[in-house]
Design brief:
Largest sheet: 8 strands, parallel
Shape: globular
CATH architecture of the largest domain: Alpha-Beta Barrel
Number of helices: 13
Number of domains: 3
Helix content: 10-25%
Radius of gyration: 26 Å
Number of strands: 39
Structural class: alpha+beta
């Protein structure tokens, strides 16, 4: 039924801005369902997050509540809000009277809510997708308003965290150690054509490559599966092997024809490696794309499985049954020598259960909780994948990583554009709970490799290659990390700048720009031309963009009185913006076609701006300032990297380093080793 509208003002008056309501639901599929229209305040623009919207791979698909990795942020004008696609998982509004409104549909252990267009507004829908009635008072919607869009987003997720209690925020979780180092994955190069010889040869090739790759992920293609008599219905364009929807899990051991010794030889080989310290394995949340085979090799675990068809099983819908299945499966991965798992196809869990149990939301919730517990107890980490519905996000108690876009595809221009936009924009929605996994990439990609490398650098998530190791582009990869493979990572994930929040990057005349905070109150700013068909676009770097970087850390960053140094690493030029008495408050540029413009923003303090390791993408992350005065700059670096310093001083003397002038106000500094490591002191001979 449809009842009177939910007034946003009334929701805001509730504790923490959370609307709670007694819900009465018939079994899924019986009656018109549950929906409440929203009485929205006047707004100028909305950024609406839902699967398979305009510009998607297939915008005609309607796979809610599955969603895959297909959440597509779409700017919507007020006149079109009633046509918004169902399955909205988040919405951000720029209000007509100023400020920003964030709407977050909530998920409990028994009910899932979402947004959809209704008449001339949005409505909140809900279901448990099960075959038994439900009656309960539950939290359904969180709302927050703030002058800053980023603070509104942070506030609405904090409210959801308190109201639901089934997940933890990113600030409460640590990124596992291995994801702070360079990695490699089998999928994009080998797809599911992997085997013991292929993996062993790849290990050797990686060791010979000269790149400090410290972990590898064995992706799809190893599981012991079988064809099924009847395929589970699935959406077109699923990112899986061609026959995957008809294949089901038979057992936990790897496929014998490909891995006759199980994981023994690969585990032994990895233990011998002085380079590869960690390894991970790909799993499918549902067993395989078609579920778990009715006739399988799981033995007593079948007592914990529920038949959802004559050919397919899933974990039964009790905590004990879900716990038994995932504990056993994860234990097998730990015994195989793996340190972490990537778990795929999470979004399909609830439609598989739909109408086959009392409450499909509860069954899926129990699976997530069981998996999270098993991984936390037995492994070092997990990557969530194909998980773009809030049921997945609202169960992330321990896991800190989620794929934030559809798959990367080598030398595919259309996919590259959408991958970049969706990866960054989706962090507005999921970034309060996860670091974003921007997926693997080919460093040898002739279409998008440089853009992909820089985008991974500012992502805040893992960076991992997928090339044949013989084809690695070392010149592109080495600027991402130190000699140890340690990544130079931002302090928070990059997100769209204020002027790009409501940009349609494929059709508008403006660039799509993102920003990420770095050490020393520095920031990395990147503008993209993602238009299709391509046309020149304008980009403008502003003080508000710099402030947005600080907001990702909950800090107030203002342009310092001496200005911001804007470093262009491609042109190797430096410009000071925003200094007192300087009328130039922003920087403008034009991107003629597909490409990016990368800039570093470095505050000028006491006449100094430490740009950092000139050959690294995130150069400020490769140094630490110890002391700074108008006459002194002292800093450390982790290895003998050439550093770049800007100063207003006419002369600079270096201790423990060689130094030379390389341009107006720019000095190249080459540290020399000391017993304490690489510690440099720069002294001025006077100020201009």
């Amino acid at each position: 039924m449809v009842s009177e509208g939910i007034r946003i003002e009334e929701v805001l008056s509730q504790p923490r801005g959370v609307w709670r309501q007694r819900v009465r639901l018939a079994p899924d599929g019986v009656g018109p369902g549950w929906s409440h229209p929203l009485a929205l305040p006047a707004f100028r623009r909305c950024l609406y997050f839902a699967p398979f919207q305009r510009h998607a791979i297939n915008p005609d698909l309607d796979l809610w509540p599955e969603a895959y990795n297909q959440c597509h942020p779409l700017p919507i004008a007020p006149v079109a809000i009633g046509a918004a696609k169902r399955g909205g998982i988040f919405a951000l509004f720029e209000l007509a009277e100023g400020g920003y409104l964030a709407l977050l549909p909530l998920v409990s252990g028994t009910l899932m809510t979402w947004l959809h267009g209704a008449g001339d507004t949005l409505a909140l829908g809900a279901s448990h997708f099960g075959n038994e009635p439900l009656e309960d008072k539950l939290p359904l919607l969180a709302v927050a308003i703030d002058e800053s869009p980023y603070r509104a987003i942070k506030a609405v997720w904090a409210s959801a965290r308190e109201a639901c209690g089934t997940f933890r925020l990113r600030s409460e979780k640590a990124l596992p150690e291995m994801f702070g180092y360079l990695g490699w994955c089998t999928w994009e190069q080998y797809r599911d054509e992997i085997s013991e010889p292929v993996i062993l040869e790849a290990i050797t090739a990686i060791e010979r490559s000269g790149l400090p790759i410290r972990w590898m992920l064995i992706d799809d293609g190893h599981l012991h599966t079988s064809g099924a008599d009847t395929a589970i219905e699935a959406g077109a364009d699923a990112e899986a092997p061609d026959d995957a929807q008809q294949r089901k899990l038979l057992g936990f051991e790897p496929e014998r024809g490909k891995f006759p010794q199980g994981w023994e030889r690969i585990r032994a080989r990895l233990k011998q490696s002085d380079l590869l310290r960690w390894s991970g394995i790909w799993l499918n949340f549902n067993g395989y794309w078609g579920g778990i085979a009715h006739q399988n090799e799981l033995g007593p675990l079948n007592d914990h499985l529920l038949a959802i068809s004559s050919a397919t099983k899933l974990p039964a819908d009790t905590p004990e049954d879900a716990g038994a299945f995932y504990a056993a499966w994860i234990e097998r991965q730990a015994a195989g020598g793996f340190d972490f798992v990537k778990v795929d196809n999470m979004g399909q869990n609830i439609p598989l259960y739909r109408d086959h149990c009392a409450n499909a939301v509860r069954a899926t919730h129990l699976n997530h909780q069981a998996l999270e517990t098993a991984v936390d107890e037995q492994l070092d980490g997990m990557v969530n994948c194909m998980a773009h519905n809030n049921l997945c996000v609202f169960n992330a108690r321990h896991s800190p990583l989620l794929r934030c876009s559809e798959d990367y595809a080598k030398e595919n221009l259309w996919r590259a554009k959408h991958h970049l936009h969706n990866s960054f924009s989706n962090m507005l929605w999921m970034g309060q709970v996860f670091w974003g996994d921007h997926d693997m990439f080919h460093s040898s990609d002739t279409v998008a490799a440089p853009l992909m490398a820089r985008s991974k650098a500012v992502s805040g998530g893992p960076i991992y290659l997928s090339d044949d190791p013989a084809h690695f582009n070392a010149a592109l990869v080495k600027p991402l990390c130190l000699e140890s493979g340690k990544l130079l990572m931002p302090l928070a994930p990059a997100v769209p700048v204020p002027d790009s929040l409501f940009t349609d990057p494929y059709e508008d005349d403006e660039a799509f720009a993102v920003v990420a905070p770095l050490a020393g109150r520095c920031a990395a700013w990147v503008a993209y031309n993602l238009t299709s068909p391509e046309k020149p676009v304008r980009a403008r770097l502003t003080a508000q963009d710099y402030a947005a970087a600080g907001e990702q850390l909950g800090e107030c960053w203002q342009t310092p009185p001496e200005g911001l140094l804007v470093w262009d690493p491609d042109a190797r030029t430096a410009t000071v913006l925003g200094a007192e008495g300087d009328d130039a408050q922003d920087g403008e540029l034009v991107l003629p076609g597909f490409g990016d413009a990368f800039r570093l923003l470095v505050p000028v303090v006491d006449g100094w701006a430490l740009i950092g390791a000139v050959d690294k993408v995130l150069s400020p992350q490769a140094c630490t300032v110890i002391r700074r005065t108008p006459a002194l700059l002292e800093f450390t670096v982790p290895e003998p990297l050439e550093m770049l310093v800007w100063t207003r001083a006419a002369q600079v003397i270096a201790e423990n380093a060689d130094i030379e002038s390389v341009g107006a106000n720019l000095w190249a500094v080459r540290p020399r080793p000391t017993p304490e490591g690489y510690q440099v002191r720069l002294l001025t001979g006077g100020r201009i």
